[in-house]
């Protein structure tokens, strides 16, 4: 009898040990402690990101769930919060219940660096500079061009924000994931006379773009260039037969295809024409 009791105790001891080892294996110390973003800043950040009912808002390190809950409650979005701390996840779920948005919010206990964020259309952050820098690669790898990112207090080093906003003495940053546009693109605007093969060469660092274009055998540096998500635009100026000509190109990038229009002001070809380009070299 005593032998059975002893082996029973050993079994219970081993089970407790096993559970606690397994538990420890799952728990990781948070990379940054919980500190909530003030509510008025949360609202301003969601407003800046233009959150609406078509959006899926991910808060990486969601704390008490406030970004995700407000995005669902006031902006009609769906939201997902990820936090490594189980206490925060429990709290977020309770808060979502209270706010009556449990059906449009999901809270995941886990490491934000390992979360699958591909479905996000908006990402909100309040981490640290170092964590933002570490996260950058993942954001570019997983998020679609056009996805908006807002970060409270911390920036992304040499990835300059599209905008920096201030509320009282607080700052937040706003970016849009740019499409990959670098490379050589070929196009042909037959209506501009002749069938010369025209070429656009784009260099890119994040959303900053520079480059040159060959139109009808003449080379120009592009100017007023802008890349926002998958929308690219730029212009060139030149003189033809004594007249100043401004050509404004704009288009949408989908993989290796750029589709849009070119507006010509001045000169013999004034007007707006379709413009499509195909990337031939990355
Ligand atoms: C400064 S709080 C921000 C909370 C919330 N996003 C807000 O702005 O109110 C950072 C949160 O990130 C969580 N966290 C820290 N490291 C994490 C990691 N590696 N993965 C997931 N969450 C993490 C913390 O538990 C904490 O709740």
Cofactors, ions, other ligands: S-adenosylmethionine
CATH architecture of the largest domain: 3-Layer(aba) Sandwich
Proportion in helices: 25-40%
Structural class: alpha+beta
Strand order of the main beta sheet, please?
Answer: 11-10-9-8-16-15-14-13-12
How many helix segments? Answer: 5
Polypeptide structure, described:
- Helix 2 (39-48) crosses helix 3 (66-75).
- The protein has a 9-stranded antiparallel beta sheet, with no helix packed on it. It has a 7-stranded mixed beta sheet with strand order 3-2-1-4-5-7-6, with helices on one face.
- Strand 9 and strand 10 (208-215) form a beta hairpin.
- The chain has 2 domains: 39-176, Vaccinia Virus protein VP39 (Rossmann fold); 183-281, Avidin-like (Lipocalin, Beta Barrel).
- The chain has 5 helices and 16 strands.
- The protein has 282 residues and is of the alpha+beta class.
- The longest helix has 25 residues, at 2-26.
């Amino acid at each position: 009898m005593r032998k059975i009791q002893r082996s029973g105790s050993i079994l219970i001891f081993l089970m407790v040990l096993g559970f606690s080892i397994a538990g420890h294996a799952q728990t990781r110390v948070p990379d940054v402690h919980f500190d909530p973003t003030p509510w008025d800043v949360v609202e301003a950040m969601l407003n800046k990101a233009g959150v609406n009912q078509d959006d899926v808002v991910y808060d990486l390190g969601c704390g008490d769930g406030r970004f995700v809950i407000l995005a669902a409650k006031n902006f009609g979005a769906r939201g997902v919060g990820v936090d490594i701390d189980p206490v925060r996840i429990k709290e977020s779920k309770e808060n979502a219940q209270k706010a009556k948005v449990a059906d449009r919010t999901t809270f995941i206990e886990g490491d934000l660096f390992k979360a699958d964020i591909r479905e996000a259309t908006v990402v909100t952050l309040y981490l640290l500079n170092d964590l933002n820098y570490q996260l950058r690669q993942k954001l570019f790898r997983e998020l679609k061009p056009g996805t908006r990112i807002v970060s409270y207090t911390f920036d992304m080093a040499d990835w300059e924000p599209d905008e920096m906003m201030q509320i009282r003495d607080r700052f937040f940053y706003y970016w849009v994931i740019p499409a990959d546009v670098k490379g050589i693109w070929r196009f042909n605007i037959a209506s501009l006379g002749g069938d010369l093969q025209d070429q656009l060469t784009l260099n890119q660092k994040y959303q900053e773009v520079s480059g040159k274009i060959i139109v009808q055998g003449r080379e120009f540096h592009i100017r007023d260039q802008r890349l926002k998500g998958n929308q690219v635009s730029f212009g060139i100026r030149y003189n033809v037969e004594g007249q100043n000509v401004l050509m404004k190109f704009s288009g949408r990038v989908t993989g290796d295809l750029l589709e849009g229009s070119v507006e010509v002001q001045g000169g013999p070809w004034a007007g707006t024409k379709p413009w499509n380009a195909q990337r031939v070299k990355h």
